[in-house]
Write a structure and sequence with these properties.
19 strands, Aldehyde Dehydrogenase, Chain A, domain 2, 2 domains, 16 helices, Aldehyde Dehydrogenase, Chain A, domain 1, seven-stranded mixed beta sheet, 461 residues, alpha/beta, Ald_DH_C, six-stranded mixed beta sheet
Length: 461
C-alpha cells in the first residue's frame, strides 16, 4: 500500500510520500536510543510541562488538523475537531496524574519483616523506545492515548502509522517537537507495513503496542513473542448493545444510532450487534431504523454531515460483501444496503434483521455503518447471543433492573460494560478487550504501567 493521502470523498490522490530508506530508519533508531538515555532521567514536572504545551498547541491547531484528518480518512469534520480536543484533554490528564499513578509503592510492613528485610518498595521505571503501530480510524486519538502515558512514564515513542494518514502522522511528530520535547522523544517512521517486523526485532526497541486488525495483531504478537518483548494489542470488536424491557426504549434507540455510526461506523468500540428483548423489539426496531435512515450522508467537510465516506475503496467492498452475503442467506434489509452512485467511497446507514450464525456478518466485524438486529426472549438468551462472537472489546446494556445489571456485568465477555449509555473511552478508565479483541490495557493507571519496568527494591535488615 503506498504512503499517500487519498481523499475518500472523491478518490483523488492528493499527496504521496517516499518510504524512509534503511539509512534514515537506522538514524532514527539510534536517535531514539540516545534520547531515551537522558529523557528517562527527567522529572515528572518537566515532562508535564512539555505535554501541557503540546495540548495547548493542539487546541490552537484544532481546525487545521481536523481538516487534515477529514481529508485523509473521511470522518465528518465536526467529529475530527472533537477528536483533537479529546486528545488535548487526555494529554492534560496524564500531565496531571502521571506522578501519582507511578508513585513508589510500599509493601505491607508485615511482608517486609517476613522477608527478612528492613524496608522495601516497588518502583515504576521506563522501558525504553516503544513501537506504536496505529490505525487510520482515529488517527490522532489512537496515537495520543499511547504517546501521552508513554512519554510521561519516561519512554520514547516510534510511530508506524497507517499508510493512508501520513500527514496526520507527520503532524504528530511536529507537534511534540514544537512543544519542546527532544527530537528523539517521538518520531514518525514513514515506512510500509513490511518494515514493522525488522523494527520490532531491533534490540533497541523494547516493546510494542498495536491497534488494528486481527492479522496485524497476530503478526506483531508472534514476532514480539519470539523476541520476548512486551506487547499491548487492541484489535477488532463487534460490540453487543442489549435492550431489556425496563429500558427507556426511545432513549436507547436514539443513542443506538450514534453508537453505530460514530466515525462513519469505523470504530472498534462502535455498537454493532443490537440484541433486543422480544417485548420491546418492535418498538426499538421502528425507532432505530427510522433514525438510521434519516442520517445525512455527504461531504464530510460540511458541518451538518453526519456520515461521510468510508476510508478506502477496499473497506467499502469488504462491507458490501458482508451485507450481500447476509442478504443472500435470508437476512432482511430494513434500510440502506445499496451502494450510492457517484464519486467517493460512501455506503448508506444499513440495518439487517434475521441474522443467523451461518452468515459472515454474525462472526466478522462490520467496519462501517451497518447494524444487525437480534431478537432475544430473555436475559439468558441475550447473554448467549452477546457472547457468541470471537470478539470481546466492549458492550452496552440498557435496563433499569439492578439485578439484570449484575448479571450482565458478571456474564458478558468484554473488557467493558456500559449501562444505559454508549461506550466511550476516557483517560481515567482502562481500555481494552478479551478474546480476539486483544490483551493488555490502554489509558488510566493500568495503561501507563503497561510499559514500565515494575521494579522491587529490597533492603536488608
Amino acid at each position: 500500500m503506498p504512503i499517500a493521502t487519498v481523499n475518500p470523498a472523491n478518490g483523488e490522490t492528493l499527496r504521496t510520500y517516499e518510504a524512509m530508506d534503511e539509512q534514515e530508519l537506522e538514524r532514527r533508531l539510534q536517535l531514539a536510543q540516545a534520547t531515551f538515555r537522558t529523557y528517562r532521567t527527567t522529572s515528572f514536572t518537566d515532562r508535564a510541562r512539555l505535554l501541557n504545551r503540546a495540548a495547548d498547541l493542539l487546541d490552537e491547531d484544532q481546525d487545521d488538523v481536523g481538516r487534515i484528518m477529514t481529508t485523509e480518512m473521511g470522518k465528518p469534520v465536526k467529529q475530527a475537531r472533537a477528536e483533537a480536543a479529546k486528545c488535548a484533554r487526555a494529554m492534560r490528564w496524564y500531565a496531571e496524574h502521571a506522578q501519582e499513578l507511578l508513585a513508589d509503592e510500599e509493601p505491607a510492613a508485615a511482608d517486609v519483616k517476613d522477608s527478612g528485610g528492613s524496608r522495601a518498595l516497588v518502583r515504576y521505571r521506563p522501558l525504553g523506545p516503544v513501537l506504536a503501530v496505529m490505525p487510520w480510524n482515529f488517527p490522532l486519538w489512537q496515537v495520543v492515548r499511547f504517546a501521552a502515558p508513554a512519554l510521561m512514564a519516561g519512554n520514547v515513542g516510534l510511530l508506524k502509522h497507517a499508510s493512508n494518514v501520513p500527514q496526520t502522522a507527520l503532524y504528530l511528530e511536529d507537534l511534540f517537537h514544537r512543544a519542546g520535547f527532544a527530537e528523539g522523544c517521538f518520531q514518525t517512521l514513514l515506512v510500509g507495513s513490511g518494515a514493522v517486523d525488522d523494527v520490532l526485532r531491533d534490540e533497541r526497541v523494547k516493546a510494542a503496542t498495536l491497534t488494528g486488525s486481527e492479522p496485524a495483531g497476530r503478526a506483531v504478537a508472534s514476532t514480539a513473542g519470539e523476541m520476548i518483548k512486551k506487547t499491548v494489542l487492541e484489535l477488532g470488536g463487534s460490540d453487543p448493545y442489549v435492550v431489556m424491557p425496563s429500558a427507556d426504549v426511545d432513549r436507547a434507540a436514539q443513542v443506538a444510532v450514534t453508537a453505530r455510526v460514530q466515525n462513519n461506523g469505523q470504530s472498534c468500540i462502535a455498537a454493532k450487534r443490537f440484541i433486543v428483548h422480544t417485548d420491546v423489539y418492535d418498538a426499538f426496531a421502528e425507532r432505530f431504523v427510522a433514525g438510521m435512515a434519516a442520517l445525512k450522508v455527504g461531504d464530510p467537510m460540511e458541518e451538518d454531515t453526519e456520515v461521510g465516506p468510508l476510508a478506502s475503496e477496499q473497506g467499502r467492498s469488504d462491507l458490501e460483501e458482508l451485507v450481500d452475503d447476509a442478504r443472500r442467506s435470508g437476512a432482511a434489509v430494513l434500510c440502506g444496503g445499496e451502494r450510492p452512485d457517484g464519486p467517493g467511497w460512501y455506503y448508506p446507514p444499513t440495518v439487517l434483521a434475521g441474522v443467523t450464525r451461518e452468515m459472515r456478518i454474525h462472526r466478522e466485524e462490520a467496519f462501517g455503518p451497518v447494524a444487525t438486529l437480534y431478537r432475544a426472549d430473555g436475559l439468558d438468551e441475550a447473554v448467549l447471543i452477546a457472547n457468541d462472537s470471537p470478539f470481546g472489546l466492549s458492550s452496552n446494556v440498557w435496563t433499569r433492573d439492578e439485578a439484570e445489571v449484575d448479571r450482565f456485568v458478571r456474564d458478558l465477555e468484554a473488557g467493558a460494560v456500559f449501562v444505559n449509555g454508549m461506550t466511550a473511552s476516557h483517560p481515567g478508565f482502562p481500555f481494552g478487550g478479551v478474546k480476539r479483541s486483544g490483551y493488555g490495557r490502554e489509558l488510566s493507571g493500568h495503561g501507563i504501567r503497561e510499559f514500565c519496568n515494575i521494579t522491587t527494591v529490597w533492603h536488608g535488615a
